[in-house]
Each structure stands twice: as C-alpha cells, then as structure tokens.
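Progress against Task 2.4 (sequence-to-structure conversion) is shown through the following example record, which the project officer requested during the mid-term review.
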Amino acid sequence: MTWRHRSVIDLDCWTREELYFFLDQSRHMENVMDRPVKKVPALRGKMCVNLFFENSTRTRVSFELAEKMLSADVVNWSVSGSSAAKGETMRDTAWTLEAMGADIVVMRHGAVGAAQYLASKLKRGIVLNAGDGTHAHPTQALLDVYTAWKHFGDLEGRKIALVGDVLHSRVARSDVIAFKTMGCEVVLSGPPTLMPREVEQLGVKYDRDPRKAVENADMVYMLRIQRERQQDGLFPSVDEYHRWWGADEELMKYANPGALAMHPGPINRGVEIASEVADGHQSVILEQVRSGVATRMALLYLCGGGAR
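Structure tokens generated for the chain above:
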C-alpha cells in the first residue's frame, strides 16, 4: 500500500488497514534487531534530531537506537543547554532546525499541541510526536498494539482494560484510539478524580471497580500515576490507591487466564502494579520495551522516506 503519513502527531486518522500494514513492517524491523550486525542503510544520509523538552529514558533511547539501526545521522538536542532555555520561541527553534538540515524531528514537550505546531512551521522536515502534554503518545500506542498483536494475532473482539490515572495520561488517549481502531473493546477504570469528564465521548466504558473492568480482559494495562502532572489530593494515599486500583495477583484472576499484564513504564512498584505481576509470567513489560525499538524503526522508515 502507499504510505500517506508524513508527520505523526496522533493516530486518530489511521485506518485499521494502515495499522496492520505498520505492524507487518515492525515485524521486519524486529528481525533486524536479531541480526549479528543490527544495521540497515534505509535512512543513510538522513538527519534525525531528538528534541526532548521533558525527561525521558525509554522513548528517547529507543528512538536513538532505531535511528542508528537505520543508519541515520543522529543529533540529541539538549534543551537545558539550548537557546530554548534562554527564551527562544518554538517558531525560531523550528527554523533553526530546518536551516541545519534536519529531516526528521522527534519531539517531546509538556505543552499540548507543541508537536503539531512544530510540524506546521517546518517546510521540509517531518515531526514524530514523542508525547505532547496530556494529549497524545502515538508511538507508545503503536508499540502496545504491536506487543498485543504478536501474542494474539487478529485483535478484533479482544478486550483491554486500562486502569489508573487516565486523566493525565497521553498514553491512555492514544491507546484508546489505536485499540478501538483494531476492533477491541476498551474499558477504563480508576479513581473518579483521575478520570476525564469526556469518557463517554471517547466511546469506551468506565467501571470504577477494577475487578469488573478487567473481567474477561485479554490485556490488563496499568497506567502510571502521573505525579508530575497532577495536584495533590486526587487520591488519599499511595497505599490506598494500590489497595483499590493496583494490579496484584488477586486482580489478575478476574482477567482471562492468558491475559497480558502491560505497563508503559517507568514502573512504580507497589503503587499501580505489584512486583509479582510486573515480574510474573503474564507480564510483557520488557517485550513492550523491545517492541518500542522495532515500531519506531518502522515509523522512521515509513515516514522518513525509506519506503519510497
């Protein structure tokens, strides 16, 4: 099929056919990761700039690995020491990147819409959104779908329960879009204070009781408590949160026997997930990390011109 996406800000305009095509491309990229020499020349001569205004480990490192495996030239832009820290506007940053010859900009920013704004200012380069505020995290959703697809194949009719801090989670919003596009039933659970008001507008179910939410689920996805994005007092205490909404072996018993335990990382052990689940046989958390490299390779390849 002809790939029609350049910049990727979210997944709301992706079709199921495009997602399945993307998953197949990701599988090919994961095969590259298993080679003795983990490198292909797909993006040789391309310049990728990783522009992270927020702290990140998994996303930033996996993008950098993906770029290098595709033979791109990689620049990690340190925002703390850049002109942005001195007051430079996003518009001027965009023009600076373009003048330097950046072909692909991977950006994480705390402001909703920052990635879309940057993409609108770049005449030639493309933007891949690595997370903008509480809005979207499309590459996390892609790696989550890819991880589930490797286990189940066709995801039509599968059930995923996302439990935790939905209100502040850009992962949750992108996962809802991606898994619904794949034909999954999506159920949300968590404290009412951590649930957006527009849950019904998302076209998903909400159940305050996590046991009911994960009943017969094929995937139990525990969302990280976004302490850096929320005010105090949205739940009484960490211990009470874990008792009510944390994933332990007892909660997992309500899901299907082969259900996957998922988490976007970093893990807050004993808060949203217990160690016996994070390290247990149902956990695919480390698989998600590996999938992140493969799917980001596929995205860079398809959007960055390697497929043309």
